[in-house]
């Protein structure tokens, strides 16, 4: 059993400081990794969607998930499941890129189920119907909004 202290952030919360690759997989200490998305960045919904889409387009779904997770945590109660579902879609893409087809199907299905109730009145221009259809196919990079 290791007795080394856990990595902690400035607030004392446990954080793994190991470097990560572009898909969020931990690398051995000392190796260069991909810079992680900062956590807890306040963004408007439009800013979160724009940043998440940029990261998805750049092939960085793990990082997009972190942006969407921040939005989920900051969202008003009536939108939390929407943002949670969007984050799950990004995690599904991460699993797919890592070669984990079973995990990808599971997270894409969960994400689609969480956003589906917003189909009739999607906030922030989010293309809920298009994302639900995309999650069923899992092909390509999703477009989060209708107007981008």
UniProtKB/TrEMBL annotation:
Region annotation Disordered: where it falls in the sequence: 1-45
Membrane-spanning ranges: none
Biased composition range(s): Low complexity: 24-33
Compositional bias ranges of the Basic and acidic residues kind: 1-23
InterPro entries registered for this protein in UniProt: DUF309, TTHA0068_sf
The protein's name in its UniProt record: DUF309 domain-containing protein
């Amino acid at each position: 059993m290791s007795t080394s202290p856990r990595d902690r952030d400035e607030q004392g919360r446990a954080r793994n400081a190991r470097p990560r690759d572009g898909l969020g997989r931990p690398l051995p200490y000392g190796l260069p990794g991909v810079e992680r998305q900062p956590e807890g960045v306040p963004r408007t919904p439009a800013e979160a969607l724009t940043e998440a889409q940029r990261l998805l387009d750049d092939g960085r779904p793990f990082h997009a998930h972190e942006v969407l997770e921040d939005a989920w945590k900051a969202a008003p109660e009536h939108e939390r499941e929407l943002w949670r579902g969007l984050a799950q879609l990004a995690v599904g893409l991460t699993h797919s890129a890592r070669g984990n087809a079973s995990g990808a199907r599971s997270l894409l299905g969960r994400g689609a189920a969480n956003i589906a109730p917003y189909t009739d009145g999607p906030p922030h221009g989010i293309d809920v119907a298009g994302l639900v259809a995309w999650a069923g196919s899992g092909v390509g990079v999703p477009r989060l909004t209708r107007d981008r």
